[in-house]
Amino acid sequence: MKTIERRSTCPINYSVEIFGDKWMLLILRDLMFNGKNSFLEFRASQEKISSAVLTEKLNTLLNEGIVSKVTSPKNASKFLYLLTDKGIELVPVMMEILNWGSSHNPDGGPKPLLDRMKQNKNKAVRELQDKLRSQRQLHGIN
Length: 142
Fold this sequence. Notes:
Layout: H1 11-19, H2 22-33, H3 39-43, H4 51-63, E1 67-71, E2 79-83, H5 85-88, H6 91-104, H7 111-119, H8 121-138
Antiparallel strand pairs: 1-2
Helix pairs in contact: 7-8
Organism: Dyadobacter subterraneus
Pfam families: HxlR
InterPro entries: HTH_HxlR (IPR002577), WH-like_DNA-bd_sf (IPR036388), WH_DNA-bd_sf (IPR036390)
């Protein structure tokens, strides 16, 4: 297991060292908002992450306990990546990034989710977190 060499004990530094680049945020986006959870699904995203970079980022997320890796029930040679509780705790942060980005880039963003956030942000966060926890339970992970 590769560990990240920390530059300091600052909580912001800790966060930035784990997911402070575009690829990590885009992988988290795909896991949370786009229902993607396999290597090939992540590779199919329009940003075109390379296989090597995707492997490195997924391994970091695994090592940091943000995702878990399980065998697909439909195909034993395929793995699925699911957010752990630690990863699900990032939902409010990602929703704020989504909200900020959509307010400054009105062409982007999942409109139904943004509308739910405008109506009741806390409820929208809870609903998404519950949905992600349900995915874990479907695969036998508590």
